[in-house]
Amino acid sequence: xxxxxxxxxxxxxxxxxxxxxxxxxxxxxxxxxxxxxxxxxxxxxxxxxxxxxxxxxxxxxxxxxxxxxxxxxxxxxxxxxxxxxxxxxxxxxxxxxxxxxxxxxxxxxxxxxxxxxxxxxxxxxxxxxxxxxxxxxxxxxxxxxxxxxxxxxxxxxxxxxxxxxxxxxxxxxxxxxxxxxxxxxxxxxxxxxxxxxxxxxxxxxxxxxxxxxxxxxxxxxxxxxxxxxxxxxxxxxxxxxx
Amino acid sequence: xxxxxxxxxxxxxxxxxxxxxxxxxxxxxxxxxxxxxxxxxxxxxxxxxxxxxxxxxxxxxxxxxxxxxxxxxxxxxxxxxxxxxxxxxxxxxxxxxxxxxxxxxxxxxxxxxxxxxxxxxxxxxxxxxxxxxxxxxxxxxxxxxxxxxxxxxxxxxxxxxxxxxxxxxxxxxxxxxxxxxxxxxxxxxxxxxxxxx
Lengths: 242, 197
Fold this sequence. Notes:
The structure holds two protein chains of two kinds. By secondary structure, chain A is mainly α. Chain A is built from ten helices and no strands. Chain A has two domains: about 10-65, no CATH class; about 75-240, no CATH class. In chain A, helix 6 (about 110-150) packs antiparallel against helix 9 (about 175-190) and helix 6 runs parallel beside helix 10. Chain B folds into two domains: about 5-120, 3-Layer(aba) Sandwich (Rossmann fold), CATH 3.40.50; about 135-195, Arc Repressor Mutant, subunit A (Orthogonal Bundle). Chain B is built from ten helices and five strands, in the order E-H-E-H-E-H-H-E-H-E-H-H-H-H-H. Chain B is elongated. In chain B, about 25% of the residues are buried. The interface between A and B is medium-sized, with 18 and 15 residues.
C-alpha cells in the first residue's frame, strides 16, 4: 500500500513498525495522536515530498520514484543518510556489542566461544564503520559537489578536482561486501554454536542482528534507488556541460 | 541446498508481479528482482548472476540476442521465454517457455523441471552437506590466513582447485567471509584459537 500525505501517521506506523526509527531520524517523536503525515511534517519542518518518497521506498521494495526523485535536493538525502549512519554507529552497534559483552560476563564454560563471537562482531563493526566513513568522507562530498556544479552551471577549481577524482560507479561496486559478515555471524550463531546458559539473551542478540540487517537493507535501498540514480543523471548532464 | 535465484523481465507490471506471486509456490527458489526496462537487462543479469532468467523476447537487448548463447553460457543461466505468442518455440531457442495463457500448474511444473535439472548438474551429491576431509584441510589453511596461491603451493594443487574447494565449502556451510570460516574452524577444532593471527 502506498503511503500518502493525508494518512494518519499512527496508521502508517501500524502498517510497518520498521518505520519508527526512520521517522525518529527526521526528528519526529511518537505520541502524535490522530495527526496526518502532512500535519506532522509541517510541525517538524520536514519536507513532505522527501518524507513520502523515503517512507515509501522503505516500505515497498518495488517502489521506485522515478520522476519525483529529481525534485529532491541531494543535500536533504545526504543529511538523512548521515543521521542514519550516526544511529548505527552510536546506538545500534553498541547496543548489540553490550549484549555480547554481558553474555561474556555470565559465569559459563562457553567463555571461549563467546569471545569468538565478540571478536567476530568487532571485526564486522570496524568494517561497517570504515564503509560509513568512506561514504561520509568521499562519496557524500562528491555528490554535494556534483549538485553544486549543476546549480551554478559552473566549476569552481575545488569542485572540478572533486568531480574528476571520483564517480558514482565506483561507489556502486563496493556496496555488497559488508553484508556478508553480518550474514555469517547469524549463520554461525544459529547453526554451529550451542547457546550458553543465558539462552534468552543469546536469542535476543540473534533477533537484533536480523533487525539490523533489515534496517541496513532499507538504508542501502535509499542509497541505491534514490541517491545513485539521481547522481548518475547529474553526472551525465555535467559531461554535457563540459 | 542453495536457493536458485530468478529474474523476471517483462514490460507489464501485472505480468511481472503476477508471475512472481505464482513462483512463490516453488521451493528452494527466490525471485530476486523484477526488471521493467529493456536497457537494464544486461547490466542486472551481469550484476546479480541469477540461475534463471524469465524474459519477454521483446525485452532481449538487440546485441544480446545476436550473442545470445555466449551471453547466457557465460552467466550459466537457464533462459525461459515469456510471451503471448504461440509459435515462440520455433523462433527462439530457450530452456523453457511460458505462455500468458498457461495455467498455474503448467508453469510450476515446467519451473520445477528446470530447477531439478539445474540442481542435479551443480550438486552431484546434494545429500552430503558435511565437508569432506580434503575440504577440511583446505578450510584449515584458509582459517590460518593463507591466500589461495599459498594454499595451492603448500598442497601441490592448482589455484583453480583451491577456488573450487572454497566455493564448495562456502556452499555447504553457508559461511562466506574468511573470518566466519575461521570461527567455524575453531569451533570444530580444526585449528586452535592461538594459531589465528
